[in-house]
Design goal:
The protein is mainly β. The chain has 3 domains: 3-164, Sandwich (Immunoglobulin-like), CATH 2.60.40; 169-309, Sandwich (Immunoglobulin-like), CATH 2.60.40; 314-477, Immunoglobulins (Immunoglobulin-like), CATH 2.60.40.10. It contains 3 helices and 32 strands. A 6-stranded mixed sheet has the order 3-11-10-5-8-7. The longest helix is centred in the first third of the chain and has 5 residues, at 75-79. The chain is rod-shaped. The termini are far apart. 33% of the residues are buried. The mean pLDDT is 93. Bound molecules: calcium ion (4 copies). One calcium ion (CA) binds at residues 9-11, 142, 144-145, 155-156.
């Protein structure tokens, strides 16, 4: 043997050979093996002789990573004579101490650990083994590595990796629009995606039916997805079936998480809340997966979306514009303030007629276009409605007149429209005193049948914004 043939070169190779008694045959030996907490993992460690002279007195060490627990009473560990060092983080075996490793051959040992890491992340656990010492009869150093120096660029150290399994579904509910009107059908989308490695099902989805929505009856969509109303909630098990399994998400392979989508159709109804904001909340209430793992994060198992129900609000106001006082010998028009209080000559021969002109304004103060189909005017006692003065108005009862003049006039939000009415006071037929002319919206409509937010048509209720009155005084000043 020549001097330059005296090459001493030992190397180490480690690989996971068994998980829970099942032999691991992997094409990609360095791809992490997925495990669960409690799994029993066996590593095989081989020491190769890549040199030209025998190797002796080989000791191997294993750096125990966090997440793995060394099992002292395991029969493989006993067989291979592993000893825990004082640091409790390293085990060493002298099992190969008596063996001679010939050039171009190897000897192996095994070591067994239990996985103690929780199934709450895709944490990688790397177990590392290194040659602690190796000798030869010439007292030579290894040509390319130093034992027990933890240098991962050398050939006397190696590792293999585990990856934790975990389960993580997430739900997301979306509405097709943010602003709705009553009576509208709202088709909401619920997507359940799988953010973790473990495949599983969202066995039960619950949606809380909010004030302002009801589950649409006779909806084929709701029937298809099997929604069942239970009081204030609506539930489906549509995603429970085998063909609705949501595949696990492997960040190294998949571009995006797998998901399944279902739909629910609501009908918008008048909300009770003042802000008319409706919050729809969906929740994954039951799930399953092959390992019976708990979902790691609870915050994404519920999802909320908000919509706003637009409001309808018509308002009416009226005021006196002027009054024209007509006597035998003169005609005079009094502007508003003067017109509110008029003294007339009470003598029978001094017959006086007063024509009161009012304006009535209707304003759309809401968010929905609509129509003022009917406007009602209650004529004060002693005042007279003359059809010839008011072509758009009809008498519909004793001292009640009505106009449909605006019934085809679409009033958009923010818009105001004005009409007029003339009422007559006649000293021959009318009494003196305070006169109160009352006007109210008689009927309003809109395409969504949304009711007015703060008033009811034709209920004659003082204080509502669709109700207005003007008080005039006529004083009959009798001078005989
Ligand atoms: Ca070496
Ligand atoms: Ca080394
Ligand atoms: Ca109103
Ligand atoms: Ca009213």
């Amino acid at each position: 043997m020549f001097a330059n043939d005296l090459v001493f070169d030992m190397s180490l190779n480690m690989f996971i050979s068994d998980i829970n008694g099942k032999k691991i045959v992997s094409e990609d030996s360095k791809k992490p093996k997925v495990v669960l907490k409690g799994d029993i993992v066996t590593y095989t460690i081989r020491v190769y002789n890549e040199g030209h002279i025998d190797g002796h007195f080989v000791k191997i060490m294993d750096y125990i990573p966090s997440g793995l627990e060394y099992i002292a009473d395991n029969e493989i560990n006993i067989k291979y004579k592993w000893e825990m060092l004082f640091d409790k983080r390293t085990v060493v075996t002298e099992y190969l101490q008596e063996e001679i490793i010939k050039p171009n051959s190897y000897k192996e040992v095994q070591i067994v650990f239990r996985v103690t890491e929780e199934n709450t992340s895709n944490k990688i656990i790397a177990n590392i083994a290194e040659i602690k010492s190796a000798k030869n009869e010439y007292g030579l150093f290894d040509v390319d590595s130093t034992p027990d120096n933890f240098n991962n660029s050398e050939d006397d150290i190696d590792l293999d990796r585990l990856k934790l399994q975990y389960f993580d579904l997430a739900i997301n509910i979306t509405a097709p629009k943010k602003e709705v009107v009553t009576g509208e059908m709202l088709n909401c989308t619920i997507r359940v995606s799988n953010n973790a490695l473990v495949s599983g099902n969202a066995d039960e989805i619950k949606v809380y039916i909010p004030d302002g929505l009801k589950v649409a009856e006779d909806s084929l969509t709701n029937e298809h997805f099997g929604w069942k109303v239970r009081g204030n909630i609506v539930i489906t098990e549509f995603l429970k079936s085998k063909n609705q399994i949501i595949k696990g998400f492997d960040k190294e392979i998949d571009e995006q998480p797998d998901y399944k989508e279902i739909h629910i159709v609501f009908e918008v109804c008048e909300p009770k809340s003042k802000d008319r904001v409706v919050t729809i909340k969906a929740e994954i209430t039951k799930d399953s997966n092959e390992f019976n793992l708990h979902d790691v994060s609870s915050n994404d198992r519920t999802s909320e979306t908000q919509i706003r129900v637009k409001y309808f609000d018509f308002a009416l106001s009226s005021e006196l514009i002027n009054a024209t006082v007509i006597t035998v010998d003169k005609q005079e028009t009094l502007e508003k303030d003067l017109a509110l209080y008029i003294e007339v000559d009470g003598k029978i021969e001094a017959r006086t007629i007063i024509k009161y002109l009012y304006k009535i304004q209707i304003t759309n103060e809401g968010e929905i276009p609509g129509y003022a189909k009917e406007i009602v005017n209650y004529i004060p006692e002693g005042m007279i409605f003359k059809k010839e003065d008011n072509p758009g108005w009809e008498e519909i009862g004793d001292k009640i007149i009505l106009t449909k003049a605006l019934s085809n006039r679409l009033l958009n939000p923010g818009e105001t429209v004005e009409i007029q009415i003339i009422l007559t006071w006649d000293s021959e037929k009318s009494s003196a005193g305070m006169k109160r002319n009352v006007v109210e919206l008689g009927k309003v409509t809109n395409d969504s049948n949304t009711i007015d937010i703060d008033s009811t048509p034709n209920n004659k209720k003082n204080g509502e914004d669709d109700f207005s009155f003007t008080e005039m005084i006529v004083r009959n000043n009798i001078r005989w």
